[in-house]
Amino acid sequence: MTDVTGVPGDVLHTLFHSDQGGHEQVVICQDRASGLKAVIALHSTALGPALGGTRFYPYASEAEAVADALNLSRGMSYKNALAGLDHGGGKAVIIGDPEKVKSEELLLAYGRFVASLGGRYVTACDVGTYVADMDVVARECRWTTGRSPENGGAGDSSVLTAFGVFQGMRASAQHLWGEATLRGRTVGIAGVGKVGRHLVEHLLSDGAHVVITDVREESVRRITELHPEVAVAADTEALIRTEGLDVYAPCALGGALNDTTVPVLTAKVVCGAANNQLAHPGVEKDLADRSVLYAPDYVVNAGGVIQVADELHGFDFDRCKEKATTIFDTTLEIFARAKSDGIPPAAAADRIAEQRMAEARHR
After folding, report:
1. Beta-carbon count within 10 A of 359 CB
2. Which residues, 6 or more positions from 250, have their beta carbon under 8 angstroms from its beta carbon?
3. pLDDT digits (tens, 9 = 90+) for 327-356
4. Could you tell me which residues come within 8 angstroms of residue 42 by beta carbon, excluding any fewer than 6 positions away?
5. Residues 141 and 187 grouped into a single domain
6. For residues 107 and 273, is the Cβ–Cβ distance under 8 A?
7. Could you tell me the residue range of the domain that residue 208 belongs to?
């Protein structure tokens, strides 16, 4: 366990009083020479070494960074369990604006901290980190995935992440409308960055009508130049209020489903790539009360973690894509469990994941 000497009181409060409890280990990392400040959170290793990405983000406070690491690592435990991987859940966050403070020295220092855990945590890319960054981290730590093909890795994991989300959408369509296709449906995507732009391609190929929005104008322009038939909403609020919207796909940061957005959501399905879409407990019930079908984010966005996990054993894209295809069946299983138990899909997914982790602990 981390030495908490000198850790600010608000950070300690977050560590020991978080409602995301049950973590096995939390490591506070600091390297003065490079300016590194990071948190590595291991939620569970019941199924195997904890696996999860490294987020590089300008958090407003250290307590906020710790809270995010705890929340994200718990989500990875559930994601890996439902993806059928022999990995527990972990996550790391590096505090700072990656455009301003990211450096080779900082990434190498971070790699040394990950290596000090001796394989209990395997890292990868996340928001603010990229394949090139993992190549640097790997110079100090062999428990690094998401590396470039030139350095023995699988490269960009967003391709299979988008593919998995598309499988989740197909399953949602099957459950709600009786046909596993988005043909003729209108899908709104909030965030067309690394994952969202690939999702657009899948949907257009399937015959869907697509509406997009993104805070980065260049991301929107890149899509519309390739596909002028794609419509653009002014912002996320305008997107979720779009008349005739069938599916809403949050593909940016978390908390997209909250007390403000859920009451005005016009879509009948929510299925997207963003992590931690439910802003707080109870939102899943609000969605169910409005007859909105929610495909749990950590289920449908597991394509990326399937890819990076495979990298540890010699990456094979076709093998990974085949495994990511099973997200369709897993999503249908969750909807069936939710119906039989009379609970929202998010709760059904949690039960299935918790059952697998509990069985592993007692083996």
Report:
1. 12
2. 190, 191, 256, 257, 270, 272, 273, 274, 277, 297
3. 999 999 999 999 999 999 999 999 999 999
4. 23, 24, 25, 26, 50, 73, 88, 89, 90, 117, 120, 121
5. no
6. no
7. 158-301+341-358
Q: What is the pLDDT of residues 25-50, one digit of tens each?
A: 999 999 999 999 999 999 999 999 99
**Burial grade of 88 (CB within 10 A; 0-12, 13-18, 19 or more):** buried
CA distance 277 to 234: 21
**Cβ-based burial of 16 (10 A; exposed 0-12, middle 13-18, buried ≥19):** exposed
CA angle 237, 240, 245 (to 5 degrees): 155
C-alpha distance from residue 228 to each of 224, 231, 281 (Å): 5, 8, 39
Alpha-carbon gap, residue 255 to 259, rounded angstroms? 10
The encoded tokens of residue 280 equal 């707080």
Among 99, 119, 151, the domain boundary falls at: 151
110's CB contacts (< 8 A; 6+ apart) are 29, 31, 36, 38, 54, 92, 94, 137
* Nearest alpha-carbon partner for 60 in 108, 110, 4, 11: 11
User: What distance in Å separates the CA atoms of residue 35 and residue 61, rounded to the nearest whole number?
Assistant: 15
**226 in a structural domain:** yes
**21 shares its domain with 147:** yes
Is residue 173 in some structural domain?
yes
Residue indicated by tokens 């005739």: 244
CA-to-CA separations, 40 to 17, 27, 51, 73, 92, in angstroms, rounded: 17, 5, 11, 9, 4
Q: Is residue 352 part of a domain?
A: yes
Q: Name beta bridge partners: 269.
A: 247, 293
Distance (Å, whole) CA 144 – CA 156: 14
pTM of the predicted model, to two decimals? 0.85
Q: Which residues are catalytic?
A: 91
